[in-house]
Design a protein that fits this description.
Radius of gyration: 21 Å
CATH architecture: 3-Layer(aba) Sandwich
Structural class: alpha/beta
Bound molecules: iron/sulfur cluster
Shape: globular
Number of strands: 12
Largest sheet: 8 strands, mixed
Number of domains: 1
CATH superfamily: P-loop containing nucleotide triphosphate hydrolases
CATH class: Alpha Beta
Length: about 325
C-alpha cells in the first residue's frame, strides 16, 4: 500500500469561455493548470495564494465536486478522476469539505441534530435513534457547542457557532481527509482565532489529515506541515513550513511572507509590495505567469514557462532564477 493518502499529479481544471448569442466556445479559463502534490496520513497541507489563483477549484476538483479536465488524483491508492459517480459518492464519505460560508452550506430547515444525524447515518445506517442522538451530543461537545441546543436551527446560531456545526458535520463521518476551504474568512476577526484554535486542537487530538486552503499565509502557517503556494492556476513553490518561512525562493512567496506580521518587535522584515493585479486567467501572460509583477523579470521569463525544480530536498520552485 502507498505511504501517501493523497497523490495529485498534473491536475488540470479548465472552464470553457463562451461568446456571442449561440454561446460559441472561444477559449478556456485554466483555473487549475498542472497542480501536483502529495499528502501523508496525519499531515496538514496548506494551499495559499491570492483570490482567483485556483486554490478552491483545486480542492473541489480533488473531491470531484468539479470534474477535472486532466491529470490524476489518487486517494488511498485509488485513481478517482475516472471513478463512476456511484463509487465516487461512497468514497466522498471519506473526504469532507468544510465550507467558507457555513450558513450557505447548512440546510436552514433542518435542526442541528437532524443535520448531524444525517451525516452520522452515512457512516452507520444501522445505528438506532438513541445511539445517534448520543453521538450528536458527543459531536457538539467535541466542537465546543452546547448539546442542549441540538434542536435549534442554523439561523439561531452565530457565524462562529455555525462554522462549528459545519466542522462537526464533517467529523461525523470520521473522514480520512478534511479539506477546509477558507474556513474562517467569512467570520469576524475575534471569532476567527477561536475557530482556528478549535481546528488545531482537533487536528492534534484526532490526528486528522487536512488540506487547509486560505488566501492568508499567517492562517495557513499555524496549521501546515507543508505549504503549496499557487499563482494563476499553477504551483510556484512547495516546501515544508519551516523551509518556506526561513528561505522562500520564489519572488511571489517572498512577497506573501513579507506581509505576514512578526510578533517579535525587535525583528523587522521589509515589506515587498507587489504592483498590479493578478492577470485575467482567461488570457494569462506567456512564459512565467508572474512576470508582469516580478521585480526580477528577465527576457526568458516573458516567453518560457519555468518548470518546478528541486532547490533543496522537499523544496521545489518554478522560477528561472533557479533553473
Ligand atoms: Fe520572476 Fe522570472 Fe522567476 Fe517568474 S521566472 S518569478 S518572472 S524571475
Amino acid at each position: 500500500m502507498s505511504e501517501w493518502l493523497l497523490e495529485v499529479e498534473d491536475l488540470k481544471t479548465y472552464f470553457p469561455v463562451q461568446k456571442g448569442f449561440f454561446g460559441r466556445k472561444s477559449g478556456y479559463i485554466k483555473a487549475v493548470d498542472g497542480v501536483s502534490f502529495r499528502l501523508k496520513q496525519g499531515e496538514t497541507l496548506g494551499i495559499v495564494g491570492e483570490s482567483g489563483c485556483g486554490k478552491s477549484t483545486t480542492g473541489r476538483s480533488i473531491l470531484r465536486l468539479i470534474n477535472p479536465t486532466g491529470g490524476s488524483v489518487k486517494f488511498s491508492g485509488t485513481e478517482i478522476t475516472s471513478l463512476p459517480q456511484g463509487e465516487m459518492r461512497k468514497l466522498r464519505g471519506r473526504m469532507q469539505l468544510v465550507f467558507q460560508d457555513p450558513y450557505a452550506s447548512l440546510n436552514p430547515r433542518m435542526s442541528v441534530a437532524a443535520i448531524l444525524s444525517e451525516a452520522l447515518s452515512v457512516r452507520d445506517q444501522q445505528m438506532n435513534r438513541a445511539g445517534r442522538r448520543e453521538q450528536v451530543m458527543d459531536l457538539m461537545r467535541l466542537v465546543g457547542l452546547n448539546p442542549n441546543q441540538a434542536d435549534r436551527f442554523p439561523h439561531e446560531f452565530s457565524g462562529g457557532q455555525r462554522q462549528r456545526v459545519g466542522i462537526a458535520r464533517a467529523l461525523a463521518v470520521q473522514p480520512d481527509l478534511i479539506i477546509a476551504d477558507e474556513p474562517v474568512s467569512a467570520l469576524d476577526v475575534s471569532i476567527q482565532a477561536q475557530i482556528l484554535n478549535l481546528l488545531q486542537d482537533l487536528q492534534e487530538r484526532l490526528r486528522l489529515t487536512f488540506i487547509f486552503i486560505s488566501h492568508d499565509l499567517s492562517v495557513v502557517k499555524h496549521f501546515s506541515d507543508r505549504i503549496v503556494v499557487m499563482y494563476l492556476g499553477g504551483v510556484v513553490e512547495t516546501a515544508g513550513k519551516q523551509q518556506l518561512f526561513s528561505k522562500p525562493y520564489h519572488p511571489y512567496s517572498q512577497a506573501l511572507i513579507s506581509a505576514v506580521p512578526i510578533l517579535n518587535p525587535l525583528k523587522k522584515r521589509e515589506r515587498i509590495v507587489l504592483s498590479g493585479d493578478v492577470p485575467n486567467p482567461a488570457n494569462p501572460p506567456q512564459g512565467c505567469t508572474f512576470h508582469q509583477r516580478c521585480m526580477h523579470c528577465m527576457d526568458i521569463c516573458k516567453t518560457v514557462r519555468p518548470m518546478l525544480v528541486e532547490v533543496e530536498p522537499g523544496h521545489v520552485v518554478a522560477c528561472h532564477l533557479y533553473s
